[in-house]
Give the backbone structure.
Amino acid sequence: MRELLLCPPDYYGIEYEINPWMSRARGAEAAVAQKQWEQLHATLSKLDCQVHLIAPQPGLPDMVFTANAGLTISRKFIPSNFRHKERAGEQPFFAKWMEQRGYEVQWLPEKLYFEGEGDALFGGDVLFCGYKFRSDIQSHRAVADMLGCLVISVELVDPRFYHLDTCFCPLPDGGAFWFPLAFDEYGQRAIREHVPDLIDVSPEEATHFSCNAVVQARDDSARPRLPLPRVADERIHKSRRRMQMSHYVYAATRTRVIRTRCHPERSEGPLNRLLDLAGSSRLLPDRNQFTSIRKILDSTIPLIHTHNVERA
């Protein structure tokens, strides 16, 4: 049974601006955000997975975006080194939570910025890692050495897509959907070389975080405002649940970031993501009936997809 980690949005809010989508002036309504998170939690709890909760902390509103907390592979956990000081305080809480549950916590050098599953996604046996806006390319070598896997670094060139998971979503059947213009020319070539079955999303779909999804179980939770790319919709099955996660998109994220995989199996590739948390979510079932949940905001670790909230 898959295990997921979520963080309640007790302290969630737009208290600072660290990406082009966040706006303190617009803000988020606490009551609405709470209700949307509860809906997400209830939906996940009904799936074939075990949902864990980490206690939220005052002054750390973006802990809800658990997918950014780090990278989990089997029983190893690599905590994130956040680039922005506003999020750096989250690190010890996630590391302690994992350590208390028997995970081997492996630390990156402090000077290397790395933002977990926000910038590190498995496509088959390849770990694709994004860099420039949040993570450093130098961190990728360290992660490869820790995990003993092939890591392919891809440069992100559009600040609106500052994390890899905002523009690239691997699928368990070996394919993926992505927004090519978010990558430089080399990154596009590298992804095309290693992912033979790619589905392009339009600029409109990309800016609604259509790529911000995670595979989880047997259902599909789709964000209400915008459908999946047409080709992807035809490919990933019928059963889909719609959830409103708009107040997490204010943080520029979706459901995927709101959940984290606590106990992934390395062989499952992209399904090994366990940190996701908010937004309007979408679950994308594939031929093996794994479900990918789109993230609405970054308040989970890699498990859910969301829409209409400002992402951290």
About this structure: The chain has one domain: 2-310. Residues 155 and 184 are 6 Å apart (CA to CA).
